[in-house]
Amino acid sequence: MRIVIAMMKHETNTFSPVPTPLERFGNRGLQSGPAAIAAFRGTNTPFAAFVDLAEKEKAEIVVPVTADAPPSGPVHADAYRQFTSAILDAVKKGCDACFLDLHGAMVAETTDDGEGNLLSQIRRVAPDLPIAVALDLHANMTNEITANANVVVGYKTYPHVDMYAAGEHAGRVMLGALRKETRPTMVWGNRPMLPHTLRMGTHIPPMKDLIDMAVAAEADGALAVSVFGGFPLADIPGAGLSVVVVTDNDPDGARTIRDRILDAAWERRQAFVYRSEPLKTSVARAKGLTDGPILLIDHADNCASGGTQDTVAVLAEIMRQGLEDVAVFGICDPQAVAELIAKGIGAEVTVKLGGKVSMPSIGRQGEPLEVKGRVRAITDGRFKVRGPMATGTTISMGRTVVLDTGKVEIVITERHSEPYDLGCFQSVGIEPTHRRYLMLKSRIHYRAGFAPIATHIVECDGVGVTSSDMSLFKFEKIRRPIYPLDETAEA
Prior knowledge:
The chain is of the alpha/beta class. It has 13 helices and 19 strands. Helix 3 packs parallel to helix 4 and helix 7 (207-219) runs antiparallel to helix 8.
């Protein structure tokens, strides 16, 4: 048996000013063949699960590409062409199955449906090829994806701590079909709703309710049931919540499960809307809390949703209100990093921090914050993830500096990196459990590593292209009417 296994992952924020060239896919290494297998072996990723399953089958494994980049704007055409061409070339040489570790919300300069376009191309050259796909919970589902894949399985957790499990699930179902043990039948559907990302955490309702229904349906015999919250910051027709059901040759049963979960989602649509409070109020509330660590979540500038990771509104308010014993992760500012490295450890400096990237989609110019402090540490910015999300992968933040103001320690990086693992602090000499406050540029993924150590969590509504205030964004392509952009939308 010969199995093609590939990874092509990007969550595209069409409102993000951050470009997505080929070079952006290098954080974990753009690799192929045995080098890719070695790089991801033992990691909590669908790719690793696919490899493990294939090896148990004693299959010949072909890896044309592993490409994964932090969320940002549309993928450059040449990068997308390179990834898809590599996968297509491998399939054209002949194989018995194809296992794909994709995201589900990729937009390229040449297509609004990166995954669906890839699958359509594969299907044209290999009409009968069994294809299994693992997708992120934030996938924006399309007809092209489901019509051209045999099995689709999504993550059931956010933070995504079940990535390996999703890959194992998809691959296992596909291998069962190859053995003629089952005949996977897949249906999908959606509702006109665009849930806010901050209301998709699977630890609480409303998303937890839907995931519980999916798990129950699988326990009752469905081969796979996936609830996709969608990625709302993609201005494409298919953005929004959807459900995909795979049964053993039971399309009627699949449709019943699908409709039951979609109806439940629609009934809960108001609960999927995030309600914020003024930033000053949030920081003042945090100041009144005592025991730490207290998490201050700067969710409007989350690089793992396409944020610039260099807005400073929340940091500025923290400093204005005089909070002490604060560690911040992090500001992505290559210029500041270079300046501080040139000064050296121990230097007393004044730097214009952040605000280097303007955000025309929300009408904001970059606004740097002048900060005085001491250069506390300089590192290469690399560490291995030990926590439950993306376990075993290596994070490369680029050259990294810690600037200490006396009250606030700020981690400044060359590359975008979301704080979902304690290593983002520990690798630069900051022990997060010893801080009263931790300011994190994150939305939900921070929960993987930081929720277990937190005494309080305070969400801070700052500035950025990952804001939950949908009135900031000009949607032109998305299907309308859709809730909550249109209060009168009907199922």
